[in-house]
Amino acid sequence: MFSNERPIYRQIRDIIVERILSSGDGALLPSVRALAAEAGVNPLTVAKAYHDLQASGLVTAKKGVGLFASDGAAKVLLKSERALFLTEEWPRVQARIEQLGLSAADLFEKA
Length: 111
Description:
Helix 1 (about 10-25) packs across helix 3 (about 45-55) and helix 2 crosses helix 3. The protein has 5 helices and 3 strands, in the order H-E-H-H-E-E-H-H. The protein is mainly alpha-helical. The protein has helices at about 10-25, 30-40, 45-55, 75-100, 105; strands at about 30, 60, 65-70. About 60% of the residues lie in helices and about 10% in strands. The chain has 2 domains: about 10-70, Orthogonal Bundle (Arc Repressor Mutant, subunit A), CATH 1.10.10.10; about 75-105, no CATH class.
Protein backbone atom coordinates (compact mmCIF):
# COMPACT_ATOMS: atom_id res chain seq x y z
CA MET A 1 0.00 0.00 0.00
CA PHE A 2 2.77 2.45 0.84
CA SER A 3 5.81 3.35 -1.22
CA ASN A 4 9.33 3.70 0.10
CA GLU A 5 9.78 7.04 -1.65
CA ARG A 6 8.19 9.16 1.10
CA PRO A 7 7.68 8.77 4.84
CA ILE A 8 4.52 6.82 5.69
CA TYR A 9 3.10 9.65 7.81
CA ARG A 10 3.22 11.88 4.70
CA GLN A 11 1.39 9.22 2.72
CA ILE A 12 -1.20 8.96 5.51
CA ARG A 13 -1.49 12.75 5.41
CA ASP A 14 -2.29 12.46 1.69
CA ILE A 15 -5.06 9.97 2.47
CA ILE A 16 -6.56 12.40 4.96
CA VAL A 17 -6.26 15.27 2.45
CA GLU A 18 -8.14 13.19 -0.14
CA ARG A 19 -10.90 12.58 2.40
CA ILE A 20 -11.15 16.29 3.15
CA LEU A 21 -11.33 17.09 -0.57
CA SER A 22 -14.03 14.48 -1.18
CA SER A 23 -16.04 15.22 1.99
CA GLY A 24 -15.64 18.99 2.28
CA ASP A 25 -15.31 21.44 5.13
CA GLY A 26 -16.59 20.37 8.51
CA ALA A 27 -16.50 16.66 7.64
CA LEU A 28 -15.90 14.23 10.47
CA LEU A 29 -12.60 12.44 9.85
CA PRO A 30 -11.68 8.94 11.04
CA SER A 31 -10.18 8.65 14.50
CA VAL A 32 -6.46 8.01 14.85
CA ARG A 33 -7.10 4.41 15.87
CA ALA A 34 -9.63 3.74 13.12
CA LEU A 35 -7.39 5.13 10.38
CA ALA A 36 -4.36 3.28 11.78
CA ALA A 37 -6.30 0.00 11.71
CA GLU A 38 -7.57 0.69 8.20
CA ALA A 39 -4.10 1.55 6.88
CA GLY A 40 -2.30 -1.12 8.91
CA VAL A 41 0.10 1.32 10.55
CA ASN A 42 1.03 2.37 14.07
CA PRO A 43 -1.42 4.91 15.57
CA LEU A 44 1.54 7.22 16.29
CA THR A 45 2.13 7.48 12.53
CA VAL A 46 -1.46 8.59 11.98
CA ALA A 47 -1.26 10.96 14.96
CA LYS A 48 1.79 12.62 13.40
CA ALA A 49 -0.09 13.13 10.12
CA TYR A 50 -3.07 14.64 11.96
CA HIS A 51 -0.73 16.84 14.03
CA ASP A 52 0.79 18.26 10.84
CA LEU A 53 -2.66 18.97 9.43
CA GLN A 54 -3.76 20.61 12.70
CA ALA A 55 -0.63 22.76 12.70
CA SER A 56 -1.54 23.85 9.16
CA GLY A 57 -5.06 24.72 10.29
CA LEU A 58 -6.66 22.12 8.03
CA VAL A 59 -7.97 19.84 10.79
CA THR A 60 -9.73 20.81 14.00
CA ALA A 61 -10.05 18.58 17.05
CA LYS A 62 -13.19 18.82 19.15
CA LYS A 63 -12.50 17.22 22.50
CA GLY A 64 -14.69 14.21 23.11
CA VAL A 65 -16.22 14.44 19.63
CA GLY A 66 -13.51 13.85 17.01
CA LEU A 67 -11.42 15.36 14.27
CA PHE A 68 -13.00 17.55 11.61
CA ALA A 69 -11.94 19.26 8.39
CA SER A 70 -11.59 22.94 9.24
CA ASP A 71 -13.74 25.58 7.57
CA GLY A 72 -12.01 26.58 4.34
CA ALA A 73 -9.74 23.51 4.36
CA ALA A 74 -11.01 22.14 1.05
CA LYS A 75 -10.39 25.46 -0.73
CA VAL A 76 -6.87 25.76 0.71
CA LEU A 77 -6.10 22.17 -0.27
CA LEU A 78 -7.39 22.62 -3.82
CA LYS A 79 -5.10 25.62 -4.27
CA SER A 80 -2.10 23.73 -2.90
CA GLU A 81 -2.91 20.64 -5.01
CA ARG A 82 -3.05 22.85 -8.11
CA ALA A 83 0.28 24.43 -7.23
CA LEU A 84 1.83 21.02 -6.59
CA PHE A 85 0.59 19.73 -9.95
CA LEU A 86 1.99 22.72 -11.77
CA THR A 87 5.40 22.46 -10.14
CA GLU A 88 5.85 18.69 -9.92
CA GLU A 89 3.56 16.93 -12.38
CA TRP A 90 3.14 19.30 -15.30
CA PRO A 91 6.77 19.04 -16.53
CA ARG A 92 6.37 15.23 -16.79
CA VAL A 93 3.02 15.59 -18.55
CA GLN A 94 4.47 18.14 -20.93
CA ALA A 95 7.47 15.90 -21.73
CA ARG A 96 5.12 12.97 -22.49
CA ILE A 97 2.96 15.18 -24.70
CA GLU A 98 6.06 16.18 -26.66
CA GLN A 99 7.15 12.53 -26.94
CA LEU A 100 3.81 11.78 -28.56
CA GLY A 101 4.29 14.66 -31.00
CA LEU A 102 1.37 16.61 -29.58
CA SER A 103 0.91 20.06 -28.10
CA ALA A 104 -0.81 20.99 -24.87
CA ALA A 105 -3.67 22.45 -26.95
CA ASP A 106 -4.18 19.00 -28.53
CA LEU A 107 -5.22 17.65 -25.12
CA PHE A 108 -8.21 19.95 -25.00
CA GLU A 109 -9.49 19.42 -28.54
CA LYS A 110 -12.69 17.45 -28.87
CA ALA A 111 -12.21 14.10 -30.56
